Amino acid sequence: MQNKRCIISNLLSSYSWICISGKRKHSQGRENRTSPPNIEYGGPSPIKVAGDLRAPISDVLLVEDWRLPATYSFSMKTLFAILFAFVLPFGATLSGQPSYEGPPPSLEVVEDPAARRAAYLDRVQEVIEWRAEIVERGDATQMDLASVSANLLLGRNIEACNARVIEMMQTPGSGPFWMLPATCVAFVGRDLLSEEAQAAIRDAWRRTYQLRGDTENHFAMYYAMLYLMSELYPNEPGTEWYNGRSSEENLAESRDYLIDWMKLTTTIGQGEFNPTHYIGEYAIPMLYLMSWARDPEMRIRGQMTLDWLYAGLAANTLNGVLRGPNSRTDDNSVVERWNSLSSFFSWINFGNCPPQRGFSWGNYYALVAANYHLPEVIYRIATDRDGSFLQRDLKRSRHRWRYSDVGKAPIYKTSYITDQYAVGSYQGGMADPIQTHVWDVTWALPDPRGRHPTLFSVHPYSDSRAMQTYFNVRPDTMVKAVAAEGKPSYDVADKLVSCSPYEQVFQDLDTIVALYDIPKGTRFEQVNGFFSKDLENLTEDDSGWIFAQGGETYLAYFPFTDYRWEPHMSYQRLPSDGSGYRYERVPSGSQVLISPSRKNGTILQAAATSEFVNFEAFKTAIRSLPMEIRREPTPRVTMRSLRGKDIHFEYGSAPRVDGKAIDYSKWKLFEGPYLNAEKNSQKLEIIHGRLKRTLDFNTLSICDTVSKKPL
Fold first, then answer.
1. I want to staple 593 with a disulfide (CB 3.0 to 4.6 A). Which of 196, 360, 529, 648 is the partner?
2. How far apart are CA 231 and CA 243, in angstroms?
3. What pLDDT is attached to residue 96?
């Protein structure tokens, strides 16, 4: 018998919860208005707080700021360039950020829910205070919209906020990265900004055309913001909107897209899966829907999607640090695994990881973060694991517009996580043409900041035809354009961010086999292996294995062919000269193993140091493993793993383990001890110990259960 609590969304309810002075009340019969209302739809009215955010800031708003570095695709970045007017000036000194500058957070589990909530709100307070003081600190000469909203929330500098909003609305940007901040300031300022400032915001949405963008995260932001603004200004004709559609038409289109995207994500998986940065571009819009949507259906959808996202984050982090594989990442965070926006969300939700310097796009999230209550079961998955675990997930590729028999190819993702290290991969091939990271082993460190705790190999693939598959842009500009628009390594031979149609990967627990069969004439005919500056006891053994130690993890890496070492050169962004992004390359202290052979491969085996008497014992165990490698006519491996598994993997064929072929067609949406969902089910079970939360998008319900024994 279980003690069961089910929360079912009542879609027929006309009630909206309002929080006033910490007490919950409800009101009925909201009227449609063409001017900003005095009460928030779907949440408490904005409250001026001058100090402790544990007063009911639960539904205050959030605002504008640019994510740095911004990332777009091809011409979309150029078309969004006007938004740089709102960016924190480059090179500004960021100070007064204790969580970034101080010691790493404790990894101890906080058992008391009240203490957890208090610590969460303390972190929220830090972000809001930090952003509110951007001018006082000397980081900028004027407030951006994020600092405007923070000041409004805290009841400070109201007249200066009015003047700054009016000024910024004179030159609005175009696209999702402007729409989100503009929506935030519109909601946060409804009771606080002057009529003139509010009118300036409204007019910007009338006269400035908004570009939808061309990626999954662009669409999520675009439609969520258009949905909210259409609710905020109902019953207005197309002449009052940039696209010529009425409020009702914009609302219907936005709602239809958001529901369709949620259905796609909960049936066959997210396209931009496990992203190091773009998690914010999904979490923030969902938090806004949960907080501000009038329609109770959209509020519950926002909350459930946040739970869905954070359950995935919790299960894919190692002490809060997100590891691979990643559909979208960048040149820096692929090696310095901590240094991404995902770390902000681990810090704010789980308290087990330092945030990025400056909080990045997280400034927008924090201003309404008190609205969200992280379920304990998700907190436990992130911080309180019971030994090693294996998780398999189904995701999908970026949409393919041409040169493909499928629009969205399935991605089969594997993660094996222990207390000391995590190994993750997908099966190889193209997930996203520009920023995908296919596999890695990442090890735990007491403080991940500035460290490179990871090892992997990659085919540095660059190809105009591949770009044409995924982007509807002129082919003669593609390769040059992507390199010039914030992805500087795309057409560079030693790059480390890439996926390739000529790479196939198989993972069994903590063993990786990556095979490469690169056609002659391909842009770069080599395999790059990343070797961290933080590795200890790096040994090139006569057996062909390369041995090393990272933290409390022993590592064995076997390159199939001859190689050479080159210094790893990181990308350091320079101030713009007006012609776009500028970078210089500087040595990071790490190395890249360059193996210039078209028929190639990598084998990786990881193990905890506690499993062996010493490093020599580990090396002896690896050398003794039976292994046969052939490169012709196609790369092939027959071997026994350190875990006693007989693996046979040939390029172009299904891998076999102990004589049984892997059948990817039976892959579930989620399968593991913590997350479970059937493909096409729209239903996720989140489990830890005795706790289970079920998210069911079929019925729009959240169901929590507590069993007498661990599930």
1. 529
2. 16
3. 65
